[in-house]
Design brief:
This protein is of the alpha+beta class. Helices cover about 45% and strands about 20% of the residues. A 4-stranded antiparallel β-sheet has the order 1-2-3-4, with no helix packed on it.
C-alpha cells in the first residue's frame, strides 16, 4: 500500500477495509518521508472505497509514490505467472518499469484513461450514436502513450535479460548449463523494419478500424500484449514441468531484486507472502541467502516452521492475533 498506493491482493480498494468498519489506514516512514494511505468506504456496506494518499502531509496521486519505497513482492499467486492470465505478466513488467521511470506511470495513467474513452466512443459509433471522425481526438494520445509503454517495456526486458540468466544459473546450474531462460515480449502490433512502436500501433489501429467498431472495443495496444517465458526458445507454458516453472518464477524475482537495486544502489524492500511452503529445500536455500543479504524484508507465514532456522535467528517474529478490538501485533511479548 505504501509503495504502490494499492494492495497486491485486489483491485477494489474497499476490500481492504476491515468488515464492520469504514476506514483503513496505513502509515510508514521511509528515510525522511512519512507516507500515509487511507481508504474510506463509499456507501453503506459497499465494497468501493475513496482513497487518500499523503506524503509528508501533502496530497499525492499514486503515481507520486514512485521511487519513495521500492518493493519486490513474492506471493503465492506469483506461481501463476507462467500459466495464468497475461495481465499477471504485464503487471510484473509494468511495476518494474514504473520503479525506474515516473514518466512510465504517467503514460500508464494516460493510456488507461484514453482506452476507456476510446472504447466508449467505439460502442457509440457501433450504435450510430457518434461519428468515426471523433476517434481522431483520442487516437493521438492513445498511440503516444501506448508507443511509450511498449518501448519502455522492451527496454526493461533487455535490462532484465542478464540478471534473469544469472539467477537461473544460481538456482538451477545444471539446467542453465544446457539452455538459457529468457523473457520475450509478444505484441499485437509488431513493428515493421525501421518502424517505431508508436508507428506500429498507429498502423494497426488503421488496419483494425472496421473490426474495432464491429466489436465496440479497442483490439490492439499494450493492454493486450503478453510476456513469454522461454527455456532454450521453447515456451514454458506448453512443455515445462511444475518444478521448471517455479524455478523460472523464482529466478525472475531474484532478477527483479538485482535490477531494482541497480537503479540507485538501494536494495528494495522484499515482501514475501507465505511462499516458503511452495518451495522445495534447494529453492528455499537460494531465497534465504538473498533475504539475509538485504537490509530489510517482511515475510508472512501461517507457521514459523515454514521458515528457515537461520532466518528466524536474525529476524524479529511478530504474531497477528484478532479479537473484539481488532487485530493486534505482538513482538517479543510486547503488544503494539
Amino acid at each position: 500500500m505504501l509503495a504502490w498506493g494499492r494492495s497486491h491482493r485486489t483491485t477494489s480498494d474497499g476490500e481492504i477495509i476491515r468488515w464492520g468498519t469504514d476506514l483503513a489506514r496505513v502509515e510508514g516512514t521511509v528515510g525522511n518521508d512519512t507516507i500515509e494511505v487511507a481508504v474510506v468506504r463509499s456507501g453503506a456496506g459497499g465494497s468501493a472505497g475513496r482513497k487518500r494518499i499523503r506524503v509528508n502531509g501533502l496530497a499525492r496521486r499514486a503515481s507520486g509514490l514512485v521511487g519513495l519505497m521500492r518493493v519486490v513482492v513474492f506471493a503465492p499467486e506469483e506461481m501463476l505467472l507462467i500459466v495464468g492470465s497475461p495481465s499477471l505478466r504485464r503487471a510484473v513488467i509494468d511495476q518494474l518499469a514504473s520503479a525506474g521511470s515516473p514518466a512510465y506511470a504517467d503514460a500508464m495513467t494516460t493510456y488507461g484513461r484514453t482506452l476507456q474513452q476510446r472504447n466508449s466512443l467505439l460502442r457509440a459509433i457501433r450504435e450510430e450514436g457518434a461519428d468515426r471522425a471523433e476517434l481522431r481526438f483520442w487516437d493521438g494520445a492513445f498511440v503516444d502513450a501506448g508507443g511509450a509503454i511498449v518501448a519502455e517495456r522492451r527496454r526493461v526486458l533487455e535490462a532484465l535479460a542478464a540478471p534473469l540468466a544469472a539467477a537461473h544459473a544460481e538456482i538451477a546450474p545444471e539446467e542453465a548449463g544446457e539452455t538459457t531462460l529468457t523473457l520475450s515480449y509478444q505484441t499485437n502490433a509488431p513493428p515493421l523494419p525501421s518502424e517505431s512502436a508508436r508507428d506500429a500501433l498507429e498502423r494497426r489501429l488503421r488496419e483494425t478500424a472496421d473490426k474495432e467498431i464491429w466489436n465496440g472495443s479497442t483490439l490492439v495496444g499494450p493492454h493486450r500484449d503478453d510476456l513469454v517465458f522461454e527455456l532454450g526458445g521453447r515456451d514454458l507454458t506448453t512443455f515445462a514441468s511444475r518444478g521448471q516453472q517455479r524455478t523460472a518464477i523464482l529466478a525472475l524475482k531474484l532478477a527483479e531484486l538485482d535490477l531494482v537495486t541497480a537503479l540507485d544502489g538501494r536494495p528494495p524492500l522484499l515482501l514475501l507472502d507465505d511462499v516458503f511452503s511452495e518451495l522445495d529445500p534447494d529453492r528455499r536455500t537460494h531465497l534465504v541467502r538473498r533475504i539475509s543479504a538485504l537490509p530489510q524484508a517482511f515475510i508472512t507465514t501461517t507457521t514459523l516452521d515454514d521458515l528457515d532456522p537461520g532466518l528466524r535467528a536474525i529476524g524479529t517474529s511478530w504474531q497477528v492475533t484478532t479479537g473484539s478490538a481488532g487485530a493486534q501485533l505482538t513482538a517479543s511479548g510486547v503488544e503494539s
